[in-house]
Amino acid sequence: MRFDILTLFPHMFSSPFQESILARAIEKGLIQIRTINIRDFALDKHHVVDDTPYGGGQGMVMKVEPIARAIEWAKSQDPSAWTIYLTPQGKQFNQDMAQELSSRSHLILLCGRYEGIDERVRELLVDEEISIGDYVLTGGELAAMVLIDAVSRLLPGVLGSDRSAEEDSFFHSLLEYPQYTRPFSFRGRDAPQILLSGNHGAISLWRRREALRRTSMRRPDLLARANLSDEDKKILEELFQGESINDFGLRIKMESNLYLGLVHHPIYDKRREVISTAVTNLDIHDIARCARTFGVRGLFVITPLESQVQLVERMICHWMEGAGSVYNPTRKESLSLVRVSRSIDEASREISDLWKKKVMRVATGASPHPKSISFEVFRKLLEDRETPFLILFGTGWGLTQEVKDNSDYVLAPIGGRGYNHLSVRSAVPIILDRLLGDRVV
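Structure (tokenized):
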């Protein structure tokens, strides 16, 4: 397979492809990687490849002519070559895309720089736009390296065994099983004895069970689209025999149709400007414990900030699989309910996919709204067990008007004596008690 990389900085690719698996694949002739300097196709003697944007604005834009000439030169040698532009605006790259691209024989990878490329390149010369994640890099070169690595390992002969790629995480929409090597004992923890048994059938079954267990705990959304065999379904039933499991893999009795959303964006600050608030450990721990107490199905922490997403994921991993899971098993149980989402829409889609039905959004706040319903009315709505509900709780100075307007209902404010400035972790238990708590007769 051939990769042609169109870049302004070809030397960036020298070192990564001279090491490890890709270096051996190049040496064997399994892949060919060629860097093409876009400057070589500039029209003037100074090799200018960028210019100021029409209409004004910050930065520079890569000119259309050098890029067009570079792409057309590469395609003149192979008209079937598939041209990809690496850009944050592209489709999110995943294992399925890597598998699809591995079936092609020639990829042209265009690495953008500065403020991007002239739009006419996209319109006339690019076949596909791909992003490797919701963040901004200095240029497309690192994204091209990621794509080449992910695609190359799927080609026959590139890995030591063709089965190696099939056992990677995400290949069959499952996370990979845990791996162990020497020493057998380390700081009081032993590797599973079955891995030393020599019984390959038993080992294979253990690995499959662990892959299913890990996926159900960390990425239950993957199970929804995994092609599970009858044996896989039987394994899942055995894993949770005699118990119900919630949507995030928690083995508890679970009858509620209620989810919570702890919203960190879009949120108002005290000047009613829209902001993103920071995640706090205390909020997540306390609200998760409250959710577990009242039998809520799940808690979504909603933030678009990648640093905050990673913070929540590290915290959950510590309590689910790290030292925290041994130190405090009950905390593990409550935090099993937590899942991080990048938007309210993303959390809603995940719930709707699980239920195969639209989730009803219910906003909360300290002031009345035209859509306001009483606690009594909402309690009756929850009696429809076939319909999932997502209650949205705002951090900062509360949910924006747009979030409330786009919700199906808005819950009436918590009644007080002329003062209603509760923190979110104070409001959640009050609301859940009114909705799910036992009535006092």
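The longest strand covers residues 82-92. Residues 171-179+193-242 form a domain with the Trp Operon Repressor; Chain A fold (CATH 1.10.1270.20).
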